[in-house]
């Protein structure tokens, strides 16, 4: 997979390193000469250019990329890069960094963004996830389809504890994708049972989140009555 990253700062270089370790081709783009540090990520391609300019993106051959990551520290730049990548070059997957949470509402398909990653929101979500049981925590937003990656730790008193996955009537537009049980990561099958303390990860439509939380958190005594 070929990935272009706009922004060769600490965030961009870190992403590049991870992708290279997983066997992907990576191109780092930055307009600041001081950011071009080939020795820090020597396996990557480097381009000194303004990623907001069509001529620069032509030089980067963005049409050959499977993914573009807009990872600069400037939200305006990240939006422009995302829009150009999607509309001018038809890049299948565009991921954009959100620096200011107040701008998060802009990072959607109208600007060519498939996945928006807000570091402040993600950090707060991880804090909530660590201390919350029975509460739905939104971890990541996907622009297409208005879907989110959400997590809930199944409480001891949940009526679903001990129930098989295939026996649960899940809300429409939701999908259970992973069960984290202690140190194990399980791909759920219909025969798997839900256990109290399981961390459940779903991809769910935003409109279904409240319904999903109610289903998972309902108490046994309430369900019996």
From TrEMBL:
Domain RCK C-terminal intervals: 137-218
Pfam families assigned: TrkA_C, TrkA_N
UniProt xrefs under Gene3D superfamilies: NAD(P)-binding Rossmann-like Domain (3.40.50.720), Regulator of K+ conductance, C-terminal domain (3.30.70.1450)
Listed PROSITE patterns: RCK_C, RCK_N
Keyword terms, alphabetized: Ion transport, NAD, Potassium, Potassium transport, Transport
Xref: InterPro entries: K_uptake_TrkA, NAD(P)-bd_dom_sf, RCK_C, RCK_C_sf, RCK_N, Trk_Ktr_HKT_K-transport
Domain (RCK N-terminal) ranges: 1-117
Protein name, entry field: Trk system potassium uptake protein TrkA
């Amino acid at each position: 997979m070929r990935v272009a990253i706009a922004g060769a700062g600490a965030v961009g270089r870190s992403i590049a390193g991870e992708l290279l370790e997983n066997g992907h081709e990576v191109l780092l783009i930055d307009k600041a000469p001081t950011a071009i540090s080939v020795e820090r990520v020597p396996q990557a391609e480097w381009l000194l250019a303004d990623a907001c300019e069509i001529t620069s993106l032509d030089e980067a051959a963005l049409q050959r990329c499977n993914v573009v990551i807009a990872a600069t520290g400037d939200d305006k730049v990240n939006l422009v890069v995302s829009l150009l990548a999607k509309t001018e070059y038809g890049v299948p997957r565009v991921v954009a960094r959100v620096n200011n949470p107040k701008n998060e509402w802009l990072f959607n398909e109208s600007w060519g963004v498939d996945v928006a990653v807000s570091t402040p929101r993600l950090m707060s979500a991880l804090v909530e996830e660590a201390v919350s049981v029975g509460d739905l925590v939104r971890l990541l937003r996907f622009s297409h389809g208005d879907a989110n990656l959400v997590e809930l730790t199944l409480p001891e008193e949940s009526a679903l504890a001990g129930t098989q996955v295939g026996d649960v009537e899940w809300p429409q537009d939701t999908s259970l994708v992973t069960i984290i049980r202690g140190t194990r990561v399980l791909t759920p099958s219909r025969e798997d049972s839900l256990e109290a303390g399981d961390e459940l990860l779903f991809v769910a439509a935003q409109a279904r989140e409240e319904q999903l939380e109610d289903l998972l958190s309902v108490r046994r005594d309430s369900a019996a009555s």
